[in-house]
Amino acid sequence: MFCVSLNGMGTQILTLPSSAHELTIGSHATLPGLFPINPALFTAASNNNPYLMINRGNWYGDISLTQIGYNTLSKNKVIHMGLKYTGLTDLEFRDEIPKDDAISIFSAYGLIADAGVAFKNENQRYGLSISFVQFGIYTEYSNGISFDLGYLYDMKNDYSFGISVKHVGKMTKLESSSPKLPSRLSLGFSKKINFNSLYNKIFCSYDWNSIASASKVYVGNKFSWNRLDILAGYSVSENVSESSLGIGLNLNRYQLTYGTKFGSQGIGQPKILSINILMP
């Protein structure tokens, strides 16, 4: 359990989903939002009112997820600022001799503060973000800097193609060695299908992670009618498949979205509640 918990944390906290949309639809290079994996797709209100987003949930292994972000439009550029915290408590410190009680209890945490900018040139979008990363366990901790780049091309017939390169950087030493950042390449396409008041968008993406043992393929869908959103997704990698469902409600200045994921390994059920607030 100790090793599993550490593998669930570490620098892989950078790859955990940031919102209910990402958890349910998937980590797509063409999925816009306040916390997209593609920094070219940071979104903001066109009337210059800033967006505030709050995400709260749990990942596998009872890892807690908390994130808050702020996006605003400035001179035709979207400016993003965000803070993400992941935590794991009640880890037991034991030696090689079996005992009923642990020697001590400790925790592990991850903290990410990021800032980014996105802009559009006709049917092309570009984005850049930089993150300060801190990961700690017991009495040790490591700091680092990570850079993300993103691009999206809006094609004819409501098709889009996106690509992002994430987590390029370096960490300081954690005890005796420096943790490796999970350098990540994501590329994919999406297709809009609108009919009267019905809106539907299909997503498909390929995701490669330098630390993960296998790459992953995501397929997702967002269906919207009036104020209601229905979200669904499926992902597959070597020996692992996951499905997810979510629902969203748009209430003028407020957007509430809840999503959950079901994995084939039966090790938990991640869930995230996202609240978007359009500020005055």
Descriptive report:
By secondary structure, this protein is mainly beta. The chain has a single domain (2-96, 104-278), classed as Porin (Beta Barrel), CATH 2.40.160.40. It is 5% helix and 61% strand. A 14-stranded antiparallel barrel has the order 1-2-3-4-5-6-7-8-9-10-11-12-13-14. The protein starts with a helix and ends with a strand. The model is unreliable at 1-8 (pLDDT under 50).
Provide a short characterization of the protein structure.
The chain has about 280 residues and is mainly beta. It contains two helices and 14 strands, in the order H-H-E-E-E-E-E-E-E-E-E-E-E-E-E-E.
Output the keywords.
14-stranded antiparallel beta barrel, Porin, 280 residues, globular
Helices and strands in order:
Blueprint: H1 2-8, H2 20-25, E1 51-59, E2 63-74, E3 77-93, E4 104-121, E5 124-137, E6 140-154, E7 159-171, E8 184-195, E9 198-209, E10 216-225, E11 228-237, E12 240-251, E13 254-263, E14 271-278
Antiparallel strand pairs: 1-2, 1-14, 2-3, 3-4, 4-5, 5-6, 6-7, 7-8, 8-9, 9-10, 10-11, 11-12, 12-13, 13-14
- The rounded Rg comes to 19 Å
Architecture per CATH nomenclature, i.e. the level-2 architecture: Beta Barrel
CATH C-level name: Mainly Beta
Number of strands: 14
Strand content: over 45%
At the third CATH level, what is the topology name? Porin
Strand order of the largest sheet: 1-2-3-4-5-6-7-8-9-10-11-12-13-14
CATH superfamily, called what?
monomeric porin ompg
Tertiary shape: globular
- Secondary structure class reads mainly beta
Helical percentage: under 10%
Cα separation of the termini: 47 Å
Order of helices and strands: HHEEEEEEEEEEEEEE
If you average the pLDDT, what whole number results? 87
Uncertain regions spanning at least 5 consecutive residues: 1-8
Main sheet attributes: strand count, strand direction, barrel closure: 14 strands, antiparallel, barrel
